[in-house]
Here is the input.
Amino acid sequence: NAGVMQNPRHLVRRRGQEARLRCSPMKGHSHVYWYRQLPEEGLKFMVYLQKENIIDESGMPKERFSAEFPKEGPSILRIQQVVRGDSAAYFCASSPRTGGTDTQYFGPGTRLTVL
Amino acid sequence: QKEVEQNSGPLSVPEGAIASLNCTYSDRGSQSFFWYRQYSGKSPELIMFIYSNGDKEDGRFTAQLNKASQYVSLLIRDSQPSDSATYLCAGLSYNTDKLIFGTGTRLQVFP
Here is the structure.
């Protein structure tokens, strides 16, 4: 049973370009979460999605960032017009259902570097 | 005030000793707590979760939760050099599904 998959593992972009990060949840998991980890900092929640729905995007910057989880295919975190401050590790996690003690399992992350 | 607080460390313990990692939280709505281990440059790996007051043991690991004191801890018995990593404490609120992480405690186990 494959775990959470993320690609690419490393992404380099120049300022002003777009970054697209993909996440495929574990088999049987329909809930996806995106977190960002800045260097030497803890993980910060960005957005929580179910298939075709954004449930909570309270942690996502209002501008330049968007996320989707279509009916078919992976969840995508999109960052438009990247800036150097976007350089971070972006982790995706998935869980089978909401609430209680449902555990979130993390993917390997995408390390974004903005030049 | 941060919602989940951890001492950043590093916490240094000799091999074979007990490592004690602590975490406090401010949101009384937090119902479940998770301990993740993160090696440098890697993703968080779940160690344990706990949602009831008291202790929960799994192998060399024991998680402790005291809701009255808003305190969570992780004990690692017989610490090994391979346990050297950053340990992240996270709380999950009953009303949301987002994990709120502390900044992590770096543990160093020396031979």
Observations:
- The longest strand of chain A covers residues 43-50.
